[in-house]
Amino acid sequence: MTYCVAIATDDGLVFCSDSRTNAGPDVLSSYSKMHVYNLDKDRMVVVLSAGNLATTQAVISHLDNDLELEDGDSLHSCKKMTDVAKYVARVSREQQEQAKDSTGNAEINTSATFIVGGQIRGCDPAIYLIYSAGNYISVSDETSYLQIGESKYGKPILDRILGPGTGLEDAARCALVSMDSTIAANATVGPPIEVLVYENDTFESDHYIKLAAEDSYLLSLRRSWSEVIQSAFRELPQFEWEKRSAPVLQAITD
């Protein structure tokens, strides 16, 4: 399993992904699910992947190979981010079909989903979620983030915190808390955690970090969030019967 999230703000984009590909009693394995294409000075594209590992690797390999060709579609030839979404969707469908044909077993799940985001000069930054069927959606004013993989555990914090006006650094911290909540609830999601923060119109991927399980920043963020949550919980309003019984209990204690 995996968990990836991408966030759009007024100032730029945030991408966050785990690296767990297998979790069992004897084997833990990892593989990067964030693929960054910093192409020339006119475009920057990030691809997050989830699903069948063989399929996702085949898709990424296809994208890489197309960049080496002089003719044909590639991430370099796309004029807009919608073209990028259509191109990746087509490659994904093709690779899923090839995977099914090669296995000869219709019961094997070869599906994959992707998030593609970034910016091409002359266009606004954009994020798209590409489903296994090849259709895709983008962020909106109501929902400024997209998720793939094990999404349910990390969703509540995103809904409560994020909005178009959220700062990039706050959005990145929110993504990390969302990731950490997912890791705490599901053993199939795990570090290293990759985070990339893209500032509008820079066409650079300079703000990138990779956090191991024992990274000091990740541990500090986890500890701080846990302490704040526990403190907020203790401040929740009491039930009416708790309020009425408090003086009685105090009198008995005295």
Automatic annotation (TrEMBL):
Q: Which InterPro entries match?
A: Ntn_hydrolases_N, Proteasome_sua/b, UCP009120_prtse
Known Pfam families for this protein? Proteasome
Its protein name is Peptidase
Q: Which organism is it from?
A: Candidatus Litorirhabdus singularis
